[in-house]
Each structure stands twice: as structure tokens, then as C-alpha cells.
Specification:
CATH topology of the largest domain in chain A: Rossmann fold
Number of helices of chain A: 19
Strand order of the largest sheet of chain A: 9-8-7-10-11-12-13
InterPro entries (chains A, B): DHS-like_NAD/FAD-binding_dom, PDC/IPDC-like, THDP-binding, Thiamin_PyroP_enz_cen_dom, Thiamin_PyroP_enz_TPP-bd_dom, TPP_enzyme_TPP-bd, TPP_PDC_IPDC, TPP_PYR_PDC_IPDC-like
Cofactor (chains A, B): a metal cation; thiamine diphosphate; Mg(2+)
Structural class of chain A: alpha/beta
Number of domains of chain A: 3
GO molecular function (chains A, B): magnesium ion binding; pyruvate decarboxylase activity; thiamine pyrophosphate binding
Oligomer: homodimer
Family (chains A, B): Belongs to the TPP enzyme family.
Function (chains A, B): Decarboxylates branched-chain and aromatic alpha-keto acids to aldehydes.
Radius of gyration of chain A: 24 Å
Largest interface: A-B, 80 and 80 residues
Strand content of chain A: 15-25%
CATH class of the largest domain in chain A: Alpha Beta
Chain lengths: ~550, ~550
């Protein structure tokens, strides 16, 4: 490291080294100095309309790139992304929150500076609750090691971290404290060996073992290892909703999404009747488990993720998911003959019924054929997610959604982050009208940076997922003319869709119009819902 | 109190008793039960598009009504309003945050319920940092006293509070613990007497005393007392920016806004040269003080607000602002002859120059004449606020703006809260394009509830206030066709304004069209700015 580097420039250099090329945010006076440094650097600053949009975009970017960055001003910027950062925590998305703040020299005598809430460290305290590591770079002598400590935590735990830079520290030269930190996250070898031996025995003895693959396979970039394990053993693989598409959904061993009563009956039975479920990198959250309609027997459960390893009713300490999976790859596991119904997940043909009112089910049947190899599906919360879960995605990890934390408004801004992370992908955004009204105007950012997602608005005049639970006026929302939004931005194309042939036309034109965004306003019956949501409602009713 | 009341219904009853008629929010599954109770009650639930909009609306409502309420779901709703709640804390706006949450019975064994971040109390901990009181109503035996404790704190400190209701507690009957709490906020009589005597002597001995009135005059509803004091003594009154219009701006003793170099020279000189400044309910924050360009001499300063009382360099404990102001009203204060330039604040005539490109200065000169008695001016952050400060507002407290915390995006949603709080007012919203792009689509809520603000978009293609500090691409924003927004909602009227005669026409038509919102897209030169911002920039340059 050169010794004359400023704190701000060093942070930028480290982010570039870690594969980050874009920073999402909104400027503000306490962060303008850092914004100026960014402008001079190779990191591109992507202005969103609101900080919330930047937070969601950085989350999506992190899911694809392995690290994302959102850069905001003090409190009025930072506190606006408390929610998106919380989502990153809950769903393990390693986002670095960089916030400018009042200079160290401005803080003496505790003046009432604008943007201040209670104390100067109020924002810092809030972020301590929703990140795995946080720091205020108020000392050039420790800035180097603090940056390293915090970035290391983001990479190790795949969770958000917080870096606050007082504005008078941005251009201060780093101190000499620059010994490299040690990043030792390997397992206890004895515990690992014992756990592997036990697991391998159980798997080999089982009649119908099955792998249940979760989102950490993606976060820790273990997709290739998982694929090798599947090909070595020929075991079938189900995915959790949050982990959707960690293995190619066209792969013959892919059983589809396991999500209790919400998922398909075949997948549910296969997993629940298995005598050895090998859960790798899953979170057993309520949404993943079909709102607790799952029936998994702990006596046939091997559960390994970055936070814990347990087999049946006992736990092992200090075992990393990476090491465990590599251990399985090197172990003496049987190659099996498994008799799966052939290609049961493949979509069937779709023949348009002209003039027929479009329904949720028919929409998703059609979309299943529309998805191409260069698309990434991004589903917002609600039926966009539940129905989206049944789509067959072609490549691994081509499906993004906040399937656990479930914050509405993710999908449109996430499409910005996703396309910035991988410009060869065209996002297919599935978003309810309620979620769209929260963050959909980030279309502006999409136009500004020349992106071209296809946005399907599931327009059912309200919060459709809530209606079966408890309905009232509070679930209604106003009708917008979504297809007219291109006139606001002088860009993009809009389609108003009520029938199957209008859908067909809209999809065809979206495929050929690649210069900008396409928005398809799909008018659905407020009482209509996907098969998945109907399955869930039925199961919950049976429980009552 | 009846003994068979549920926790949810009791909370609703207390809010109604305290003068609240509207609750702003977005529903979500953990709060649906409470939403259902609200629907059956006399409290009207106002759905906004995003929780951020609800937070700002409730803030505005609280500023006008004395108490506001925002109601959201757990984490994905609550954490979205961390920022708006922080603003309420910083600017003393008593908003009750009500959040649904997972049921007490759902929390056993710490499952991964959706919307959960780290622990079940993560959201509660975050709100402890940004409210004056907070509670989780997880026990029917203490729910009564907890509700009282928290609401009392909101009213006493004029700051936000947090009430979380686990969803299985909403319909649980309150326990018997219902002794009324004591609310004793009166002053120490000896300290009060000594401070009053000292202050009265100083005021009577001074040659040119002046009152500096702040926002707490409004929050504690002391406008009438202040007016009486002015009429009893004939003292001139300056206001802080945050306290703008706590006294009728047409009053002959009103000196206008004192804000250091940012304010008008006459007001600045009058206050800074005074030998006795009586600051009542002011916060001496940086924005109020013209980013610290104010030159106030502590040796001639009497400073009384709800948090402290100091005269010159010594402090008194336990003196309430209300008691002090009442004390002054009853004290033997001189009635003075004060020679103020007559009606120096009154706007002059405005003659339209047809075809002339509109400028910030001319726009505000024209708006000064446009404001009528039934209007409330709501200014967003930026030049909307700085220029807006020079407007002459007709009635007391008819000017709302986040002048201290300065969170962009306040004005449009605030207009919803303001008009719900007082349906006889028509909001005149002054908002920059940057702020509008954050929350402007709450126009949807405006349409849904039949409100009719006039919205002036100061369209200068970016964050104009930041350009003089540090300019770059990051200060640019995309051009929207704001005047086309009525086509999205099938409601409202839009006007595209580039010249003085187009402005004239737009204002005229807005005055007569009262059925819905009017949006005036005023195209300004990106380098143009108000006189106030120019004064500030000049002063800051002199400091460098």
C-alpha cells in the first residue's frame, strides 16, 4: 500500500479490488466530498430517485456480484435505508453502507447541525442493530484496519456492514497501521471429520435421500460444487424459495421448489417422505416453509449452513458450509439410480385464446415459455413471488426475490442493480401494483442509465395476498395508468393488457424493443390468484 | 373505563380523545387485525403508496393537530419510517408510531418468521434511538399504563413515540391496572420567579429589545400568548426559519425571518444589534442560523425553551416555557414606542412580462401575491425552503417545512397530512424536482382522498442547493414531464411553465380548479437560485 493514500481513496481502491464497479445512492452535503472522489475514480456512481431505491439496487447487485455498495448522506439518507439494509441482513446479502457524516471538528460542543437526530451517533447505533459490523472512520491511524475488519465481515458473513466517514476525514491520509488482517474462517478439523463421517453413513444407508439446497449455495458461490455433488451421487435436489435456481431448473435432478403446502404436491411428497434430507445452506424461515405448512422430520434431517451444523437432534460447532460441501465431494458416496418423472417441470405449449380475459394462471403459463437464456427473473413480494416460484428459470441463480424478509417494492430498483451487475442479462420484473406504487418510479433511473427491463405489473387493484387473510378498504389501491408512464420519461414502451392476445402482442413487442424499458400493465381480477397462493390458502384453512 | 375493552380498542379510543381523526399507513399481515379494528372505528385509515409517505403525512398532521399517528407492519413497514420518525424527533413533532408485530405466541423457540431481522426486538431497539418513549404491548395487565405513559410523553415532549402491538394482543382484554398517571410538568416556583425577575429587569433596561420566536411557540400552542406579549409590550418579533409564521406575518411588529446571512439584511441587523434578544422556544440549529453565519451575542441573550432556560452565561433548571411566557405576560413590562419601517414586508405589485423566461426570484415575487388566507405553504428542502422563507404568510402557523432536519421529500406527502388535519386549507406545495422524485407519486393518495393541493415543482434538473458547494454529475437528475402526471391518475391538472405569462395562466387556472390537485412544472435555469440562497453563498464565500 502506498503511504500517501487518503481514507476515501483507499476505501474506493478496496471496493474495486473486491469486484465492485458501481455504487448506488443519492448525494447530500455531508457526503459530497466522497461523491467527488467517486466521480474521479473508476467506481461509477448510480443516482437513484430515492435512497430506498439505491438500497434495493445495491442488495440485488450484491446477490449477483458478491458485494454491493450504497452511498448516502447522514441520517436523512442513511435512515431511509434502514429497511433495505435490514433485508440484506435477513437474507444474507453483503452490502456495504457508506454514509457521510458531520466532520469530527464540527462535533465539538454538540451543536444542532442539520440532519442530526438525538446524538451524533444515533445513526451509527441504529445500524449496529441491522449490520454485522460497523465503524466510524474518525481516526486516520485506525482507518486502515477498521476498513479491513468491516469489509472482511461483509464477505465472511454475507451480511451488510456500515462505514461512516465524517466529511473532514475523506481526504485525510491513512495512518501507518496497515498490517494485513488474518481471515481465518476454516473449520475445526476434528468436528468436520466426525460430522462428515456421520452424514456420509446416513446418506449411504438411506433409501431415498434428497438434497434441499438453499440461498447460501448462491451467496458462497457454491453452485458448481453442488452441481458436482449431484452429478457424483445422482441425488435429486429440491430448492427453497429463497434459493430458487441455485441449480439450473432444467437439470433432470431438479425437483423444483420445496415450500410445504404452497409448493407442488410432487416435490412436497418427495421431500417429506425422504428418509434423509440433506439441507445445504438453507434458512428454514416461514415463507420458505410455506408459512409453516412444511412437515419435515428432524429424525431424517442433516442441516448444514454458515451458522450451524446439525444432524438429527445434535449440533456441531465450527464447521463451515464450504468445507462440509467439499468434504462430501471427496467422500465415498454412492452413485444412485433415481427414477424421477422425466422433465415434469417443463412448461407445456401455450395456445392463445383471443379475447379471453387474462388470469394469473394463464399469465404465468405464458411467461414460463417467454423466459429466455439471457433473462433474470426478479419477483417482488406477493403473488408475483408465489406464482413466480413455479416458473422454470434456465440458468442457475437467475431468480431474485426477497422471499424471506419480504419487503414490498424490491423488484423495480433491484432490476437496476441486477443489470448493472451483469449487463448481458435482461431483467424480467414481476411486480404487484401495490409494490410498484412504492418504488416503481425508479423507472427514471432505468431510463437515465439506458437499462431495459421488461416489467410485468400484476394489476389487481390492491394487496391481493392480504385479501384472503383479512379484507377491507385498506387493501385497495388507486388505479394508475401504468402503460402511460413512458410519456412521463419520454422513454420506454407501455402496454395495456386485458386479454390473452393483448398479452401475446405485448410480450412479442417487448422482445423486439430492447432500447429501453417495457411495462406491461396486466389487468387481473382482484379475487384471482396463482395456484401456489390457492394451495397455501387451502392448507391454512385446513389448519384453522 | 369499561373493563371489557380490548387493547386495540382502548388505544383507538385514547387517540380519538386526544383529537386524532386520521391514521396514515400501509397495511401488512402483522397489523391486519388492528387495521380491521380501525376500519370499524371512527378513526379514518389513510392508505399511502409507501410507508415513507405515511410518515411524512403524520408528521404534518401532528404539527397542525398536536398529535399524529402512523400505523405500519413489522420491520418492512416500520423500518421504512425510521427516517420520518427521526425528523419528528429532531423537529419536535408528536407522532405516535403504531406497529403490528409477530404474536407473543409465535415467538417461542425464536423461529425465522418473515419480516424478522436479527431478533424479535430489533425494530423496537431501533425506535428507542429515535423516539422519547416506546413500548411493546405484550402484557394485558400493563397495557393500560404503558399506553398512558407513552402517549403522555408524546404530548409532553412533542416528540415521537413507539407502540408495538403483537398481533395476538390486539383483541385481548385490558387488565385492571388503570389508575390515572400523574402528569406534572410545572416549574420550580423559586427558579421561575428568579429567572422572571432577572429577565424583566434586563428587558426593561434594554434600549432595543427584540423577541426571537421559535417553533415551540407553535408546538405548545402559545401563539395567542405570544401575540398578547407583543401587544402588551409593542416589542418587535423576529422568527426563526423553523418557526416561520408563529405570528401573523402581516402583523406590524413582525420583523421577518432571522437566519444570519441567509435572511434579509434589515432583520439581521435589527436582531444582531439588539441589546436584549428574548429567544422563546427556538432551536439554535445551523439552518435556523443561516449555516452558522448568525452573530448573536450571548451577553444580550435570554434563551427559554422546553429543554433549557439560560440568561447570558448562566442556566436555570426546571422552568417550563409555558410558565415563563405566562410570567412575562403578568410582569411589569414597559410598553414601548418602536419605530419600524411601515409594512416593509408587504409584497409589491407584480406586472407580468409576457414571453420572459421565469426565474426563481420572479416566481416567488408572484407567489407572494398569490397566497390567500385559506392557504398553507408547505416547503420542501432546498431552494423551495430558502426562497419560501421570504414569502409572507397570512395567518399564524401557515408554513410547514423540515427546516432543521431537512429531509428531502417531505412536502407532497405532508400536504396530505395538512389537508386531512384541516380540510379548510388548500396546501401550496413548493418542491424541488429532486425532492419530488422521492415521494411525489403520493399524488396517488391525494387523488384517492379527493384533496386539492397546488404543487409548484421547481424544475432545475438537479440538486440545486448542492451545486454551489460541490458540483458533479451526481447533482443531475432526469427530466420528467411533471405536467403529464394527471394522465397517470385520470385526475388533476398539469401546467408546463417556462415564461411569466405561462405562470400567470397556470396560477389563475389552479385558483379556479378546486376539484383536484394542480401541478405546475416550472422550468428554471439550473444555475438560477433565490436571493436567500445567493445571500448565503456570498456569506459563506466570505468565510472561506
Amino acid at each position: 500500500m502506498e503511504n500517501n493514500k487518503s481514507i476515501g481513496n483507499y476505501l474506493i481502491e478496496r471496493l474495486l479490488q473486491l469486484g465492485v464497479n458501481h455504487v448506488f445512492g443519492v448525494p447530500g452535503d455531508f457526503v459530497l466530498g466522497f461523491n467527488k472522489l467517486l466521480e474521479k475514480s473508476e467506481l461509477e456512481f448510480i443516482n437513484t430517485c430515492d435512497e430506498q431505491g439505491a438500497g434495493f439496487a445495491a442488495d440485488a447487485y450484491a446477490r449477483l456480484r458478491g458485494l454491493g455498495v450504497v452511498c448516502v448522506t447522514y441520517c436523512v439518507g442513511g435512515l431511509k435505508i434502514a429497511n433495505t439494509t435490514a433485508q440484506c441482513f435477513a437474507e444474507k446479502s453483503p452490502v456495504v453502507v457508506i454514509s457521510g457524516s458531520p466532520g469530527v471538528n464540527e462535533r465539538t460542543k454538540n451543536p444542532l447541525l442539520h440532519h442530526k437526530v438525538k446524538e451524533f451517533d444515533t445513526q451509527y447505533k441504529v445500524f449496529q442493530e441491522i449490520t454485522v459490523a460497523s465503524t466510524v472512520l474518525d481516526n486516520p491511524d485506525t482507518a486502515y484496519s477498521e476498513i479491513e475488519r468491516v469489509l472482511t465481515a461483509a464477505l465472511r458473513y454475507k451480511r451488510p456492514v456500515y462505514i461512516e466517514i465524517p466529511r473532514d476525514m475523506v481526504n485525510v491520509t491513512l495512518g501507518a497501521d496497515n498490517q494485513p488482517s488474518s481471515n481465518n474462517s476454516s473449520s475445526n478439523p476434528d468436528a468436520l471429520q466426525e460430522a462428515l463421517e456421520e452424514a456420509v453413513n446416513l446418506i449411504n444407508q438411506a433409501q431415498h435421500p434428497v438434497i434441499l439446497a438453499g440461498v447460501e449455495i448462491h451467496r458462497f458461490k457454491l453452485q458448481e460444487s453442488l452441481l458436482k455433488l449431484v452429478e457424483k451421487t445422482n441425488l435429486p435436489v429440491a430448492e427453497t424459495l429463497l434459493g430458487k435456481s441455485v441449480i439450473n431448473e432444467m437439470h433432470p435432478n431438479n425437483l423444483g421448489i420445496y415450500e410445504g403446502a404452497m409448493g407442488k404436491e410432487f416435490t412436497r411428497k418427495y421431500v417429506e417422505e425422504s428418509d434423509c434430507v440433506i439441507a445445504l445452506g438453507t434458512f428454514l424461515s416461514d415463507v420458505n416453509l410455506g408459512i409453516f405448512t412444511a412437515k419435515l422430520n428432524p429424525q431424517s434431517f442433516i442441516d448444514v449452513n454458515s451458522e450451524k451444523t446439525s444432524i438429527h437432534f445434535h449440533n456441531y460447532e465450527d464447521i463451515s458450509l464450504v468445507d462440509f460441501l467439499n468434504g462430501l465431494l471427496n467422500a465415498d458416496l454412492k452413485h444412485r439410480q433415481v427414477d424421477l418423472p422425466s422433465r415434469f417441470l417443463l412448461p407445456t405449449n401455450f395456445s392463445v385464446k383471443p379475447g379471453e380475459k387474462i388470469t394469473v394462471q394463464r399469465l404465468f403459463e405464458r411467461l414460463n415459455l417467454f423466459i429466455s437464456n439471457d433473462m433474470i427473473v426478479i419477483a417482488d413480494v406477493g403473488d408475483a413471488l408465489f406464482a413466480g416460484a413455479d416458473l422454470v428459470v434456465h440458468q442457475k441463480s437467475r431468480f431474485l426475490s426477497p422471499a424471506y424478509y419480504a419487503s414490498l417494492g424490491f423488484a423495480v430498483p433491484a432490476s437496476i442493480g441486477a443489470q448493472m451487475a451483469n449487463s448481458t442479462l435482461r431483467p424480467l420484473v414481476l411486480v404487484g401494483d401495490g409494490a410498484f406504487q412504492m418504488t416503481g418510479m425508479e423507472l427514471s433511473t432505468i431510463v437515465r442509465y439506458g437499462l431495459n427491463p421488461i416489467i410485468i405489473v400484476l394489476n389487481n387493484l390492491g394487496y391481493g395476498t392480504e385479501r384472503p387473510m383479512q379484507d377491507g378498504k385498506f387493501n385497495d389501491i388507486l388505479l394508475w395508468n401504468y402503460s402511460q408512464l413512458p410519456t412521463i420519461f419520454n422513454a420506454g414502451k407501455g402496454f395495456d393488457i386485458r386479454t390473452e392476445d393483448e398479452l401475446e402482442l405485448g410480450l412479442e413487442k417487448s422482445q423486439t424493443y430492447t432500447e429501453g424499458f417495457c411495462i406491461l400493465d396486466v389487468h387481473l381480477d382482484p379475487q384471482d390468484s396463482s395456484l401456489a397462493l390457492k394451495r397455501l390458502t387451502k392448507a391454512l384453512r385446513e389448519k384453522v
